[in-house]
Structures are given as structure tokens and as C-alpha cells.
Design brief:
heterodimer; A: alpha/beta; Rossmann fold; 4-stranded antiparallel sheet; 35% helix; B: ABC transporter involved in vitamin B12 uptake, BtuC; 77% helix
Amino acid sequence: MSEDIINVDHLTFCYNGLEVISDISFAVKEGDYVGIAGPNGSGKSTLIKNILGILRPQKGCVNIFGRPLTSFHQWSRIGYLPQRISALNNHFPSTVEEIVQLGMKKRNPVTLKRTLDLMGIAHLSTRLIGELSYGEQQRIMLARALISQPDLLIFDEPTTALDPETRDIFYSLTHEMNHQKGTTIVLVTHDTGIIGQYARHLLYLDKKLIFFGTFENFCASPDMAGFFGSTSQHVICHQHEKTENPI
Amino acid sequence: MELTGILNYEFVQRAFLAGLFIAAVSSTLGVFLVLRRFSLIGDGLAHITFGSVAFVMLLGVSPLYITLAALPLVMISSLAILKLTQSKRIQGDAAIGIVSSVGIASGIILASLSNGYNLDLFSYLFGNILTVTRIELLLSFIVFLTVAATVIIFYDDLFAVTFDEELARTMGVKTERINTILFLLTAVAAVLAMKVAGIMLVSAMVILPPLTALQLSLSFRLTIVAAVLFSILSVICGIIAAFLLNLPAGGTIVICNIGFLLFIFGAKKILPSRR
């Protein structure tokens, strides 16, 4: 039986006394591809930040790779692409190479070149990140998340600034990493169609856990029909059926 | 007196050496602070230094040891700023403003308690690099070595935290430890820079060289090197200008810093972009 890569146990997080996430429990298995969806303000990014230890929950706990977050040290096993980077402005003095290698303990020019080639940004390697378009910056941040070949990839709204072609390349790449290398992937997005296309499990969040399971279970669930309305449920399931096994 | 002749005086040698060490320290830390939008921390800590100097003067500490005696209070205050900036209810600039006000207010009250405004206290307001003591020179050298070692050892962590603190945490960077180190070193740099530029101009030593270096659009590593070079050049030019024109060195050093910034800014406008 595969190992729990992420185990969230009765997690509750409050911001200024207001419950943003309420008593959530779920586990992500090794090699899984989980899509997290939910409306604006539903706590998706907050959940990710709790999983990564950026925020500390008021109740409950998170285990990563079988260890509590407090004693977890193997951060190179995780690649994270946040929704927004505070330093990405015109004035930040840093080359693409510097950013892509950020956080790497052992730097290897071969790995760097391979990753830059993979993301189609080798020609930008000596450029300053602030001079690039938002889409190019996003590809650089993605390259940074991928360079250490992590066992777990966490993406928070990764393709909002990407053009359709780059977006397709991105999702094909994540699919390939998941299928061929067994990389566990957690993807936060508004686009349930994308989740249906690539993810094995759907986690729907609206401050509390509404649904966690396979698309097949989601589509067969009368509870979800009640929650979303049968038409919306049908639309989500139709997107999934239409795009199943895309590669 | 000829320009080379002044270098024979021990107090001038001390001024140059201390100035170079402090310039390197304040500009290096300044790169991290400016990029993290903590530019005004130098100003806040300088105001705290004012209060701390007033306090140690009131205690009757010898002028030789005033810098050393004021240091712990400023270091504690830098940690208070850090704690306040981490508070979700107070913005970083407001936190600096709070601590800054406490420093100035307590300085004025303590100065009045010591029978009116003390002349020595005012010398700290405007700085005088030519009065750097041997202890202060030694302290500058130790701080220079400490900052150099810290930046070399923790370069990757400092870079990651400067780029994005949350992302740095997911790389296993102990961000609280890095922030504490950065703020404590800044406190020491602010106290020392007070001797060079005076309390009123400490923030200029922290902000201007990094800002000038940022105009050059270099890599992160080279930006630090360029900031240190601009800062050192400003100290050398400033002390020479002060000697030749019989002006206060603190002011001339800062004017030189501004001169370099304007020169680079102008050159960038005139010269075609390299890309």
C-alpha cells in the first residue's frame, strides 16, 4: 500500500478570529494527482500554506512524508509554485539562473540547462527576472519548482498568466511527471475542467471539506448533486469524461 | 596642508578605516533591507540610537564608551521592530514609525533631564567621523568581519528570504533566524553609522548605495558588490571633500552618495539600454 505523502488531520485555521478552514481531514497518497477547487475565499491557498508550514493551524496537524511538519526537514523533496511572488517587480536584481537555482543545496550546470531547456527559457538564462513578462516569470518559477526533481509538487493557480500553448505544455509536463516518475502532484485551480482532465482526485473546499474523492465518485454522488445542483454536477462530470486520458 | 599630509594623522587614519568598514557594512545590509521594503529601518534605529545615547549620557557613561553602551538598547529595539512588522495588525513602515517616535521622544525627555540639551548629544545628531575612537574602530572592524562572514555563510538563505519569505520557508530556510540576524546586524550598523553621518543621515548610508547599485540592473551578487563600492567611494570622496572645503564629513559623504545616484540615473537615461 502506498505511503501517505500528505496527511491533514482535523485542521482548523482562523484569521483574526474568523474560521477560514474548518476541521478538514484528508490524505494524499504517493503518486496521486489531486486537484483542489473551490470558490474565491474558500481557503484553497490557506490550506496549501498550512500544508507547507507557512501558516500554523489553530487546531489539528499536518504530516508530510510521514513526519509532523515541526520535525520535517527534507524540503528539497517538495517543489512549490505560489500564486504570487512578493519580489517579482521591475527592480529586483536577479538573473533567471539565480532564481531557478534558488534553494538548491548542490548546484549542477547540467541540471540547470536541462530544466531551462525543458521550460523553453534557456535563452533567458542571463536576463533579469524583472525585465520579463509575467508569463515568462511564471515559467521561471515553475522551473525553480521542478529543478530539484521533487517527489511532491504543489501548484497554487499556476497557469493564470500563461498563454494557452504554454498552459498545455505545463499540464502535459505535470501529467508526464506524475505518470512516468510517480511524482505526487497537488494542484489548486478554479478550473474544474483542468482538474477533471489531469487529476485523479478532486478536493472541493468551501471553508470546510465539501468533497474529496475520485471523479467517478463525485459524478455518482447524490450529495454533490444536491450541493452543486444536478446541472453543474453534470457539466463538471461531462468535462471530465470529454477529456479523460488526454495524453 | 596637503591632501596626502592629512593621512599622517592617526585620527584621520581611524576615520578613513572606520568609514570604509561602516560603508561596506551598511551598504551590504542595505541591499537586503531596501529590497524587502525596510528602507526606513535605518532611520528608525537612528532615532532609537538618539534616545539610547541620551540615556547612557544621563547615566554618566564615558564618551569613549557611549557607542558601546547604546548598542544593547538599539539591538533590543531592532527586535521590537521585527516583532511589530510580523504582527498582522501593524504594517512594516508603521512599526518603524512607532519605534522611531519612542526613540526621539525618550531622547528629548532624557536630554532635558540632564539639565537641558547636551552639546555632546547634538554631536551625535550630526555625526563626526573624525572623532571615531579606537574602540569604535575595533568595533567597526569586528562588525565588518561579522557581516562579511554572515553574508557568505547565509547568502542563499538571505537571498531566498529577500526574494520571497514564504517561498523561502518552503525551502527549509529558517526565516525567523535569518530575520533576527539581519535586524541585529542592522542595529549595530546604525549605531556605528551614527558616528560617520550622524543620526539624521544614518538611513542615507543604508539606502543610497543599494539604490545606486540597483540602477545598474546587475545580478543579486553583483548588486551587493556595486553597492559596497559606491558606499566606499562616497566615504573616500566625502572625507576628502570635507577636508578641502572645510565642511562636516557626514554631510559631504551623503552628498557624494546622492551624486553617484544622480550620475548613474542620468547615465542610464542618456546611454542606450544594453538589451
